Amino acid sequence: MSIVAQESFSVVNYGAVGDGETDDAQAFDKAWSDTCDGTSGVPSMIIPEGKTYLVGPLTFKGPCKVNNVNIEIYGSIIAPNTPSAWEGIDSSQWLMFDGISGLSISGPGLIDGRGSSWWDQSCKHHPELPALRFSKCNGLNLRNMKVINSPQTHILILGCSEVVIDTIKISSPRDSPNTDGIHIHSSQHVDIYKSEIENGDDCISIGDFVSHIKINNAYCGFGHGISIGSLGNGPDGPTEAQVEDISVVDARFMNTTNGARIKTWQGASGYARDISFEQLNFANVENPIIIDQNYCKVKGACKEQPTGVQISNVIYRGITGTTITKVAVNLNCSEAVPCTEILLDNIKLDPAISGQQLDSSCNHAYGLTNGVVQPPSCLESKSL
Which residues are annotated as active site (predicted)? Predict the structure, then answer.
């Protein structure tokens, strides 16, 4: 039996200082270049423990010479703490991973986006700045990682397939804007296990052209819950959405503004179908179950449109917990394109405020109920 030696490339051997002040981006770039060119076993780029590496905006480019490469993070990686570090370069990314097949990144180190100086700036001028951006990375594995304080989205999965995210912690202040934990767009076959996310926006969000997503054993603290959407919004106005086969199982929500949410832009087209939320538990959540098929930029001013994203075959099963709002189930669907095949199966939601009466609200929502449903269903149909 032959044993193939593993190639490892430590950033320290390429000049990384790790004092938290010197920009080590060049050393990281050189170490990655040799890792990507490695041919023995599974080449590994090593970020040693006990040091803090300041790294400016950097792209890890593929394809590599072998099908599987590793990045092992033991120390801390921090971003520049001022937007001026992005002057004259692309301000839509900090650490970008592009076109790398079979990439695995593992902890137990820390990635700190130091985004506080970005949070007061207008999103119109900086529409997105994720800490980690993965583009066209098939066979991606992210394990045992901790990512904090991203300028905006912490982890962006874009145009990827066969992705596994396992045992990840994401944290930013509850008032940090647009700091989605994980956002998935134009991707298929993404599995997320054992995620713990506390942030100021969506815990996990699903964008357009996404299918075959499994989210299992998730914790969302404050923030906006797990969102499918918003769907059907392009830079020039409403667009088409294609989202299907989304499964969320065993998720806990603490003090979030939403729980299981589906939101689609008014005037868009396409579909969101075959979606299931099962074994969810809510504690002091504002909107445990919510569909908004008339989402728009101005809250409270979203009028009916003649087109919309068709929402169908959505299952809510085994859902328990408490809510601080009177309307615990809010299904606001389009008159032109109603929500169909909605199933409420064993739902028991209680008021967090003693003595409060909970209600359901439905507009153009059609489906069935099964078992105990509390508060009572307002779906337009009969019980099974």
Answer: 224
